[in-house]
Task: structure prediction
Amino acid sequence: MEFNPYSKADQLKGHQREKEKPKHKNRRPRKKKNPQLYRGRMIPTKKERTMITPENYNRMIEEFGEYCLMCGHPGIEAHHIVFRSQFGTGNWRNLAPLCNKCHRQAHQQAEFAQLIRDMRAERFGIHFGKDKWSLFKEGLIPNSTDEAYERFMKREEEANG
Result:
């Protein structure tokens, strides 16, 4: 029996062939989340409900100005007063124009964030961070129309004003 070792080139060829082979994983198709139905109405996803639309952003600017609510700096960012993680909506009543410094402070200091929440609740009532779907599911408005939502919010504002 004779010893015939593979040359380094032959050894590498085999190794390179293994690398070149594509490795396919059998992936399952992602399941689509079932839409949430409530009393026969399809409720939008959390992502859709917390997103800031251009209309809500412009309404926030119109209502609160284009300067930081806390320090008056002109460079602003829209801040969710009730955080998105706590299901705060992208509704203009739940948005505050804050400069970068105050915005970071609102996310890092609970007392500062609570101060902003208290200021907003004083003006618009405790339901300021909710949208029409939240109020509808809680039974506070009879249907999920924009008109019913605005009527409710106007009553809340008048009661606090």
